[in-house]
Amino acid sequence: MIAFDVPGVAVTQGSHRIGWTKRGRAVVVPDQGSARLREYRSRVRQAARAALWNDRGAFPMAGPVRLEVVFERRFPKRLRSAHPATRPDLDKLARAVLDALSGVLYRDDGQVVELVLSKLWATDPRTVIRFEPLG
Question: Per-residue pLDDT for 54 more than 80?
Answer without folding.
Answer: no
